[in-house]
Design a protein that fits this description.
Helix content of chain B: under 10%
Number of strands of chain A: 7
Radius of gyration of chain B: 12 Å
Number of helices of chain A: 12
Strand order of the largest sheet of chain B: 1-8-6-3
CATH architecture of chain B: Beta Barrel
Number of domains of chain A: 1
Distance between the termini of chain A: 46 Å
Order of helices and strands of chain A: HHEHHHEHEEEHEHEHHHH
Shape of chain B: globular
Strand content of chain B: 35-45%
CATH architecture of chain A: 3-Layer(aba) Sandwich
Radius of gyration of chain A: 19 Å
Oligomer: heterodimer
CATH class of chain B: Mainly Beta
CATH superfamily of chain A: Thiamin diphosphate (ThDP)-binding fold, Pyr/PP domains
Distance between the termini of chain B: 11 Å
C-alpha cells in the first residue's frame, strides 16, 4: 500500500496535469499555441505511476503526447507553458513547441514527433547505460499506434538480444488518431506480441495510479536483476481528440462518458483515499487551488516572455553551434 | 456566459471566412448545436456551443473575414445579460 505522503503526491500531480491540459487546450483553441498540442487528459495515472517508481538516474524518452510525462517527471510548468507558446524562455528556447518538452537535468529526453521514436531513443539510452555499466534503466513511452510500426520492434529486438536495461510503457489510449486499435492489429494482443520477441510483458489498468506504480517498480527490479527488457501495456483513455480542435466522430458519446464517469483516474484515486481516511476534503480543495495558482502563473510567465530573437535563428541547428555555446 | 469563437485548428492561426450564421440573437441553443459556418483554406467548419443558452448579438457580419481565436458571439446563461 502506498504511503499517505506519496498517495497525496500522486493526487497533486494528477490534478496539476489535468489543470495544465485544461488551460492549455483553451489557449490552443484561441490560437496561442503555434502547431497545436496533444491533450493527455484521462491518461494522468500512467505518467504519475511510472515516474514515481523511477529514480533520478533513470533516463526517459516520451512521445508526441508528453505533457503528463513531463509534469510527472518534475519539469517546471512555466518552462513547459512558455515552450507551448514558443517563447524564448521555454525549455527548448521556443524552437520546439508542445512536442519538444525536454529537461536533460532530469534525465528526461522528452517528446518527439515520430511514431515509435520514444522506443528507439530509449533503446539507445539503455545501450549507453549498459556500456557505462550504470545501475539504472531507460524507459521508453509509446502510444498504441506504435505497436504496428517497424522501428518499435527493430529497437525491442536489439534490446532483447543485447539484454539491455529497457522498460517500454505503452500509454495505450486505444486509438491511433481516429483508428480503433483492435481493427488494425493482427492478433490484437500487445502482450503476446511483446513476449514473442523474448521479453516479459504484462497488461495493467492504466487508470489506477497505484497499479501503474507497482507494476513499474516490479519491472524496474527485474531489469536491474538482469532479466532484460520489460514491457507494460497500460490501458487508458484520452478524453479529447488526438490533437486539440479535432472534430471526433469515431468514438461514441456513451463510450467517452463511461470512461469519464466510471474510470477517471483522479476521481477514483480520491474515492480510494477518502474511503481509507488518507485525505480530507479540505486537503483536496487545497490541492486543486494550488494547481490553479501554479498553472495561472505558468500562463502569465509564458504571456510575458519574449519570442526568440530572429537574429538567433541559426543557433542550435548543428552540433557546431551547440558546442560554441559551451 | 460562454464565449463562442473560431478555434485555431490548423498549424497557422489565420483568418477564416464567416459564411453563415445559423442562429439569430435571442435564439435558444442546445449544447453541441451549430451556431455558425466558417470556411478555412481547407474545409467548411461548424462552430458549435458547449453549453445551453440564449444567443447574444452577432459581433461579425456574414461574408466577412474573422481572426481565429476572436469571440464572435456569446451564449447567455440564465440571469445573464449582454453588455
Amino acid at each position: 500500500m502506498t504511503e499517505p505522503g506519496q498517495a497525496k503526491d500522486f493526487l497533486s500531480q494528477m490534478i496539476l496535469i489535468r489543470e495544465f491540459e485544461t488551460i492549455a487546450e483553451g489557449l490552443t483553441l484561441r490560437g496561442k499555441v503555434p502547431g497545436g498540442m496533444h491533450n493527455s487528459s484521462g491518461q494522468e495515472a500512467v505518467a504519475v505511476g511510472v515516474m514515481a517508481a523511477l529514480k533520478d538516474e533513470d533516463a526517459i524518452a516520451s512521445t508526441h503526447r508528453s505533457h503528463h510525462h513531463s509534469i510527472a517527471r518534475g519539469m517546471s510548468t512555466q518552462s513547459m507553458m512558455a515552450e507551448l507558446f514558443t517563447k524564448s524562455t521555454g525549455c527548448s528556447r521556443g524552437r520546439g513547441g508542445s512536442m519538444h518538452l525536454v529537461d536533460l537535468s532530469r534525465n528526461y529526453f522528452g517528446g518527439n514527433g515520430i511514431v515509435g521514436a520514444g522506443v528507439s531513443i530509449a533503446m539507445g539510452l539503455a545501450l549507453g547505460i549498459h556500456i557505462l555499466k550504470k545501475n539504472s534503466i531507460a524507459v521508453g513511452f509509446m502510444g498504441d499506434g506504435a505497436i504496428n510500426t517497424g522501428r518499435t520492434w527493430e529497437s525491442i529486438n536489439m534490446a532483447v538480444i543485447w539484454n539491455l536495461p529497457l522498460l517500454i510503457v505503452i500509454d495505450n489510449n486505444q486509438y491511433a488518431v481516429e483508428t480503433f486499435m483492435d481493427r488494425v492489429t493482427g492478433g490484437k494482443d500487445f502482450v503476446a506480441r511483446a513476449k514473442s520477441f523474448g521479453m516479459s510483458a504484462e497488461v495493467i489498468d492504466g487508470q489506477n495510479v497505484e497499479e501503474v506504480y507497482e507494476a513499474t517498480a516490479r519491472a524496474r527490479e527485474r531489469i536491474l536483476a538482469g532479466e532484460g527488457p520489460q514491457l507494460i501495456n497500460a490501458v487508458t483513455y484520452r478524453y479529447f481528440g488526438h490533437n486539440v480542435g479535432e472534430v471526433g466522430k469515431y468514438r461514441t458519446q456513451e463510450e467517452i462518458s463511461d470512461w469519464k464517469s466510471n474510470k477517471d483516474p483522479i476521481d477514483n484515486w480520491i474515492s480510494n483515499l477518502l474511503a481509507k481516511k488518507m485525505i480530507t476534503e479540505d486537503e483536496i480543495s487545497e490541492i486543486r487551488e494550488n494547481a490553479k495558482l501554479e498553472i495561472g502563473k505558468a500562463v502569465e510567465f509564458a504571456e510575458a516572455s519574449p519570442f526568440p530573437d530572429t537574429n538567433t535563428v541559426a543557433d542550435d541547428v548543428d552540433s557546431g553551434s551547440l558546442l560554441r555555446q559551451l | 456566459m460562454e464565449e463562442i469563437f473560431v478555434p485555431a485548428l490548423g498549424v497557422s492561426a489565420e483568418n477564416v471566412y464567416l459564411q453563415k450564421w445559423l442562429k439569430a440573437p435571442g435564439d435558444a441553443v442546445q449544447p453541441g448545436e451549430a451556431i455558425a459556418i466558417v470556411e478555412t483554406d481547407k474545409a467548411e467548419l461548424e462552430i458549435t456551443s458547449n453549453t445551453a443558452g440564449i444567443m447574444g448579438k452577432h459581433l461579425f457580419n456574414e461574408d466577412t473575414d474573422v481572426a481565429v481565436g476572436i469571440t464572435i458571439c456569446v451564449l447567455l446563461h440564465e440571469g445573464e445579460t449582454e453588455n
